[in-house]
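Tip: read the tokens left to right.
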């Protein structure tokens, strides 16, 4: 169970459907390995699970240690170069320079790690939209004639020192408007004359009476398809929708590239604001039951100081960091107060009982859902649910 919990913590940011498939795949592999070890060693299932969990954590820690040693060795070379090239500096100046280069080095290492955030793909998607406008190679009607037309236009733009995929509007209006018109007319002709289904064509079912139930099934299937979409696909749909809205309300006559860049910037700003707000809610949990008048007064004092300094700690992450560094003692006292309140509530038996009841209700719902799914599909669950011990006895006795 501990190993499964650890796997749950390390799950990547995916859609709900993908997460469920990932969990099933991982748990299947885990329990297959457990059965194999039980047969080989003859030990109990619980001891085998514990050993596997210890092995996994040990491997993870060893990898982290190895990475730290490699980074330290790499920075030692950089430090020796800095000392050799800046021998005329004083010890304090040299120390500052080394610390500055150290922070830059580790920041670059952190930035080079693969990120799962979908907003990192926004710029690439904006480029893709521009290229699809000129050369939609994914379409079935795209042929050699279209490719030759696009290559000649791209060459013409390169001769004029213009990248047509980045500066589309300038090239179409000032660079070579007639050649662009010929190219787009050719694409429109190919698209119109092609009789087969396009890449994004979706068969629309006609309206059917509600008695037949065909339309309802079709709506359900469409909803299911939307749920099963990858995050990148949903982000693309969102960008397209916002871009269409901007184009429809574009009274100033801005080019499409500028509108697309505005959409991308707005989405990035939303994501950063959301990250800042999540941290704010984590540090100042006003929704918790133990948050009383004392916490409220302390919280208001911190917010007033931030407003006086002109900082937006609710949505801006960097503003929160600067506010904390300037008022370190105030924040230390705040976190102490929060910990004491939280611990006093955790020790309260009535709160414990409520929390356990909530967990039990969720567990019952989950089990009922699994049974219903097993009845519909006819496939039994992979492993039987163990009977849970009554955890309420001790707390009821305390009450």
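Filled-in amino acids:
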């Amino acid at each position: 169970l501990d190993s499964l919990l650890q796997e749950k913590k390390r799950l990547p940011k995916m859609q709900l459907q993908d997460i469920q498939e990932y969990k099933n795949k991982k748990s299947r592999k885990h329990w297959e390995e457990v059965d194999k070890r039980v047969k080989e060693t003859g030990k109990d299932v619980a001891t085998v699970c514990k050993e596997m969990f210890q092995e996994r954590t040990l491997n993870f820690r060893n990898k982290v240690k190895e990475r730290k040693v490699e980074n330290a060795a790499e920075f030692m070379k950089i430090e020796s170069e800095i000392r050799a090239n800046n021998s005329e500096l004083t010890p304090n100046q040299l120390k500052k320079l080394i610390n500055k280069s150290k922070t830059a080095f580790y920041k670059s290492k952190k930035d080079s790690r693969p990120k799962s955030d979908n907003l990192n793909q926004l710029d690439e998607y904006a480029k893709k939209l521009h290229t699809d406008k000129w050369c939609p190679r994914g379409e079935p009607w795209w042929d050699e004639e279209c490719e030759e037309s696009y290559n000649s236009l791209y060459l013409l733009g390169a001769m004029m020192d213009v990248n047509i995929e980045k500066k589309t509007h300038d090239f179409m209006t000032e660079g070579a408007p007639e050649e662009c018109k010929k190219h787009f007319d050719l694409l429109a002709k190919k698209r119109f004359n092609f009789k087969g289904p396009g890449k994004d064509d979706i068969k629309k079912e006609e309206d059917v009476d509600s008695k037949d139930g065909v339309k309802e099934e079709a709506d359900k299937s469409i909803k299911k398809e939307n749920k099963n979409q990858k995050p990148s696909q949903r982000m693309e749909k969102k960008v397209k929708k916002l871009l269409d809205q901007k184009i429809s309300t574009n009274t100033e006559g801005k080019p499409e590239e500028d509108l697309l860049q505005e959409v991308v910037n707005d989405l990035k700003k939303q994501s950063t604001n959301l990250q800042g707000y999540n941290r704010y809610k984590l540090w100042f949990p006003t929704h918790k039951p133990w948050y009383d008048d004392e916490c409220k007064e302390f919280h208001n004092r911190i917010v007033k100081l931030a407003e006086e300094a002109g900082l937006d700690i609710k949505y801006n992450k960097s503003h929160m960091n600067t506010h904390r560094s300037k008022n370190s003692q105030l924040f230390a006292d705040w976190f102490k107060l929060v910990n004491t309140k939280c611990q006093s509530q955790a020790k309260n038996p009535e709160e414990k009982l409520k929390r356990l009841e909530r967990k039990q209700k969720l567990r019952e719902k989950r089990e009922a859902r699994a049974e219903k799914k097993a009845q519909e599909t006819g496939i039994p669950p992979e492993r039987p649910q163990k009977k849970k011990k009554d955890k309420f006895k001790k707390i009821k006795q305390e009450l």
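Confidence is low (pLDDT under 50) at residues 1-23, 202-218. The two ends are 30 Å apart (CA to CA).
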